[in-house]
Batch of 4 targets.
Target 1
Amino acid sequence: MVRVQAAHCLRRARRDDSMRVRRVLIIMASASGTPVPAIARLVAAHEDTVRDVIHTFNEMGLRALDPQWAGGRTRRISDGDEAFIVATATTRPGNLGRPFTCWCLRKLADYLANHAERRVVIGRERPRQLVRDNRVSWVPTPHGPGYRQLRSRRRAARTIGGIAVSVRADPSPSPPR
């Protein structure tokens, strides 16, 4: 180990997190000729871990102190796909050739999976998260195109066998006449 590398390692050991400190100690002890079992006892690690750190340092040099680990599984969709999903969710389905007035998660996921130009295979949960994070709302507004249909569906739900049922806002009984 070169003297400059040793000085760099010592500076790092004083200011960085414990994982880097352990790696620096392993490298410094190995450079001084300490056997692997003794290094393993020194840093309270397994001998195989010590050997892995030494081999990685021999291959990568000082970059071995900062491994670029990525936790979890690789991403299935890119940032561009996310932007496409949000753009699709904010576009009216009728403008995209769909026969309905409002998106739901199932219909959005189906459209994305079968889109001819840009196919994004995705479940329902990720679009739900993207819609929530980007504050996209599919609730019809009072003056929007789907509101009359929603109102008529609600009105139809208040009928029983064709007879209108009045729904009172105040559940208290009415006074006798």
Target 2
Amino acid sequence: MRVKSSYILAAVILIIVVLAAMLIGGSSGKVNLYEPNLGLGGFSIRVPIYGNESTIPSSYACNGVNFSSSPPIIISNIPPSTKSLMIIMIDVDANMFIHWALVNAPPVPLIPPNLPHSFNTSFGEQLVNDFGNVGFNGPCPPSRHKYIIIVYALDSTINVKGNKYTYAQLVGMVRNHVLATAIWIGYYG
């Protein structure tokens, strides 16, 4: 029995489409966390207001006094060829809802707390979060959610043409420029 070449070509195309869908998050449209070179060379971060894998303080959530105050981020072992940092806080249980996006941050060991709610700061450019505000807004979930602060050490700066991006769009901009990645996990709700 001979199989037509058009059937073979259709099967190959179908396999490629299925594999591509799996790589970008599967058929559900879910975006996966992008963390290449995680901890490479000891690259790490610490958020001193809460422990890694612990509960985010209520003062930084919903109606807390620090709801719109960005947390301090201590950054260690920044790769020497780093040109900029990209810092994102996302709610992974709410389809990568962005609470904070800071791009083109200088490769410094401390991003101080309480960055002003403006696009241009002395520590980079803050984008519009998924609440619709420039800068940081803390967690306010309907139930317990997992939050990740992820810092990307980049070999370049990124050219942001607007001020509102999805997590997938931000990852797409840096995909071939990540020297190292570090994460800090918190829970709230």
Target 3
Amino acid sequence: MNKTLANTPVLCFLICLIISSCEEKKPQSPSPNILFLIADDWSYPHAGIYGDPVVRTPTFDRLAKEGALFTNAYVTSPSCSPSRASILLGRYPHQNEAGGNLWSEFPSNYPTYVGLLEKAGYFTGSTRKGWGPGEYEISGFNHNPAGKNFDEFDAFLKKGTTSSLLSFGLEAVIPIGNMLPIPVYKPE
């Protein structure tokens, strides 16, 4: 066999490799900004998006339509501090040492998703409760494990730069408009 013909497959492979490396690379999709809403004692179906005929939640409804809406979600604990610690740590309450109890210390020996986002370049923050009630300073945290506290979401946005990846935990105080009066049960 002719030596030139024997090298043809190798030559074709090299040409294809060079051509494919010259193709325009598609840019990677940007990392998403994250807005995590949580509210104690706010149950299904008390939002317009869930079909509640009384409660009007236009802001929450819009966020749910443009983002993610959970329709089948559960908490790890019926108590706020252990449940919030489980969300932040991705662990069950019984795995969170003292953090698995109300009015406890937040464990510092496990990474929080907020801390991991900060290490990945996100500017993070939260408003209102974040994690609590309990002690996080005793474990060496210089701010709430849910993120640096901001009085309002606008203050958080002003502090972050336009090139920042943003992650914000919002204690859901959703503006409710046109809410009808709720009938009050009066025992006879």
Target 4
Amino acid sequence: MKVLDFERAEIIDVDESQLIDPADLPGGEEEAEYEVLKFKKNLADMKKNEATRAKAEKIEALMEELRVKSYEEQQETENEEESYTPSMTYGVPREEFLKENKPEYYKRLVESGTLLDHLKSIDKRAFEMEENMIERQCEIEGVNDELKRTDRMKWVRMYNLIRHEVRSFILRDMIYI
């Protein structure tokens, strides 16, 4: 985590375990608020003094930089959560299956606001399973780089067949249940 080192007037990386939770201070939240006010007063005093004005301005610029970065990271996290779209391979078929075959469960997911989380989880697990199963099946059937170099068309046929079989298995045993 990035924090401002007031003494050195620079942003440094620290492990979150090194940070003090305001609740752990002897005075709790009130002491934390007091420390913030004391910091602001020190900064204001530094700005009044000609010798320390440059350092105070640098500290303010660094504080603004940290605020902007924190805001941008928060926005990225929110955008990632909001921008999830179920995949056509597994997420959409799962949603359609639930709508048609398990309407009560589907309704409960929608009403609780957990439908997208459910679909995201299914997508993630299904794609991980697909990747692992394809890899294992390719090893078993000899669909490897050597075959790819020597007979590319055979490699493509075999790989596509394996992928089709794996996807069919996942749809049958994970999505349509």
